[in-house]
Write a structure and sequence with these properties.
The chain is 34% helix and 25% strand. The chain starts with a strand and ends with a strand. Strands 7, 8, 9, 10, 11, 12, 13, 14, 15, 16 and 17 form an eleven-stranded mixed β-sheet that branches. Strands 3-2-1-4-5-6 form a six-stranded parallel β-sheet, with helices on both faces.
């Protein structure tokens, strides 16, 4: 019988419990597909008393991570604590102890990834993170292996199921944001404090990881331009539909050609309703990758939850357990991203189409004020919809436009002029458009 591949788990919450269940339920299948059976020896968690819905022996669960990290029999450590600390300390200790690490921690990788990858290389062990982005979608392996022959030009993704569910409900049932968020909480799709999701931070962490792998640069969370979805109103959803668009929170990483600077941004975006990403609804994720010579490729699936995360974590464990066959995935040179190696395109230099919602006094000259300020900055209008909020002329009017392709800096300059005008009744709301 082959020597078992012995693993330890740090973090025994919902995701950790799901992983333990899946390892038990799929044990025979995994053993049949691997040269070495995967054996979970020890689980470390601060809470050692609360029963979990998972098959484990009481003696397996301990309160001290040293029982996992310092055990010479354990070859790989799974980190499912989340956040930056103490997760970084645990991962560093495990790597220095000569153990492979499998993690689902996108925040940790987006902030400290290159240093941890370098540490893994120094100790000749692996740092694997398929579960960090896309849940059950094997997007990390696709970027590292499946598309290795291509020069990638863009990665665009719906990467947060909470936001996608909220925007889907706002679109399908004309719900205001707060009501759609309440539904998401009631169904367990949103945390009690949903800030991390709805302000775009979760998507930004994942986008930084994808951009780093796609373009071989040290791109981190702090490099990503971030806007959330909290300011979107039903009127924006309505106008977008009338113009043939859906609104999605997208993570985007793009460059025109090899060696060109990379734009990395997260914000709610208008995309054609009938486009591949425009059809991704509810809690699902979708990722669209373009490159040469392959062209566009699309990936779709569940982006979160115990089952999706377990699938991804176990795929990394299987890669490690199968390494006696020569897989050596963790030594892939594309993971050796030099710290500080990046060339980013400033947000002000972005050129795209824009959707802009103005709230103006409903009297003659409002549209002329908007048109003149935009024209002075070289921004032209492609289409326009005007709706009044009430019958009385003293009520403000909402004017929504879509521009031709324009520079971000020029659009922002025009908006600043309009907002200073006496006819402006509220700050303009802007969404970028991806055709």
């Amino acid at each position: 019988m082959s020597k078992p591949f012995v693993i330890g788990l740090i973090g025994f919450g919902n995701i950790g419990s799901g992983l333990v269940r899946t390892l038990a339920e799929r044990g025979e299948l995994l053993a049949a597909r691997l040269p070495r059976p995967i054996v979970l020896k020890t689980i470390a968690d601060q809470d050692t008393t609360t029963p979990r819905q998972a098959p484990y022996r009481p003696e397996q669960l301990v309160g001290d991570v040293a029982a996992v990290i310092d055990d010479p029999e354990i070859e790989a450590v799974i980190e499912l604590v989340g956040g930056l600390e103490p997760a970084r300390t645990f991962v560093e200790r495990a790597l220095k102890a000569g153990k492979h690490v499998v993690t689902a921690n996108k925040a940790l990788l987006a902030v400290h990834g290159p240093e941890l990858m370098a540490l893994a290389a120094q100790n000749n062990v692996g740092l694997l993170f398929e579960a960090a982005v896309g849940g059950g979608i094997p997007i990390i392996r696709i970027l590292e292996q499946g598309l290795a022959a291509n020069e990638l030009t863009s990665v665009q993704g719906i990467l947060n199921g909470t936001c996608n569910y909220i925007l889907t409900r706002m679109t399908q049932s004309a719900l205001p944001f707060d009501q759609a968020l309440g539904e998401a909480k009631a169904k367990g799709y949103a945390e009690p404090d949903p800030t991390y999701d709805i302000e775009g931070y979760d998507t930004a962490h994942k986008t930084a990881i994808l951009a780093s792998l796609a373009f071989g640069m040290d791109i981190r969370f702090k490099d990503v331009y971030v806007e959330g979805i909290t300011q979107i109103q039903p009127v924006d959803i309505q106008y977008a539909k009338e113009l043939g668009y859906a609104i999605k929170l997208l993570g985007l990483a793009k460059r025109e050609a090899g060696g060109a600077p990379v734009e990395v941004r997260v914000h709610p975006t208008l995309i054609p309703i009938d486009s591949p990403l425009g059809q991704v609804n509810n809690v699902f994720n979708g990722i669209l990758i373009d490159g040469r010579p392959i062209g566009p490729t699309m990936y779709y699936g569940r982006g979160a939850g115990a089952d999706a995360t377990s699938s991804a974590v176990i795929s990394d464990l299987m890669a490690l357990a199968a390494d006696e066959g020569g897989y050596n995935r963790w030594r892939d040179s594309r993971l050796a991203i030099a710290a500080g190696h990046k060339r980013l395109k400033p947000m002000d230099e972005l050129e795209t189409h824009y959707y802009i919602r103005f709230t103006m006094d409903d009297r003659p000259g409002a549209m002329a004020t908007i048109g003149r300020a935009l024209a002075d900055q070289g921004v032209s209008i492609e289409s326009m919809i005007q709706h009044r909020r009430g019958e009385a002329t003293e009520q403000p009017a909402t004017i929504s436009i879509v521009t031709h392709k324009a520079a971000e800096a020029k659009v922002q300059a025009a908006l600043a002029l309009i907002e200073k005008h006496a006819m402006s009744a509220a700050r303009a709301f802007i969404l970028r458009v991806e055709e």
